[in-house]
Specification:
Length: about 160
């Protein structure tokens, strides 16, 4: 039949067309992914966040909810990403030093494929939300270093980013 995969996990069928990877033969396993990133900003911006002085509301609380919601909708945002039933999304946003907010997402599921994209999406959207809520006072903020730091489960088992 035209369009069948050529074998293995690939995003291309036998004719070279993009397809969603078929994971139906993979066993369900517990999966975890941890991603991190940061938003660098002027010290006055971080102090305003800490003091609750941003006119749009609780920056870190709103960014946390935005990141969790984004993780749940990753398949709608990233082409060919599998829709997953997430069992847990934990998002921490922590002021760091005098000029940054550090963000960490921990995403869990039990299924045939991992949740790396969900964790990375959660961090990305949380960082964008911080930027959006604070841009009126600091357009020079930088979203930096969004990366996967850990994944567990599946055939490849445990992976951790080098320190």
């Amino acid at each position: 039949m035209s369009g069948e995969r050529t074998g293995g996990l690939t995003h291309f069928d036998a004719e070279g067309r993009a397809v969603m990877v078929d994971v139906s033969d993979k066993p369900d396993t517990a999966r975890l992914a941890v991603a991190r990133g940061r938003v660098a900003m002027a010290p006055a911006t971080l102090e305003t966040i800490r003091a609750g002085g941003i006119g749009k509301g609780d920056v870190l609380g709103v960014a946390r909810i935005a990141g969790i919601m984004a993780a749940k909708r990753t398949a709608e945002l990233i082409p060919l990403c599998h829709p997953l039933a997430l069992s847990s999304v934990k998002l921490d946003l922590v002021p760091s030093g005098t000029d940054a907010v550090e963000i960490e997402a921990r995403v869990k599921t039990t299924g045939p494929t991992g949740v790396e994209m969900e964790a990375l999406t959660a961090v990305s959207v949380a960082a964008l939300t911080v930027y959006d809520m604070c841009k009126a006072i600091d357009r020079g903020m930088r979203i930096e270093n969004i990366h996967l730091v850990r994944k567990e489960g599946g055939k490849s088992g445990l992976w951790e980013a080098p320190r």
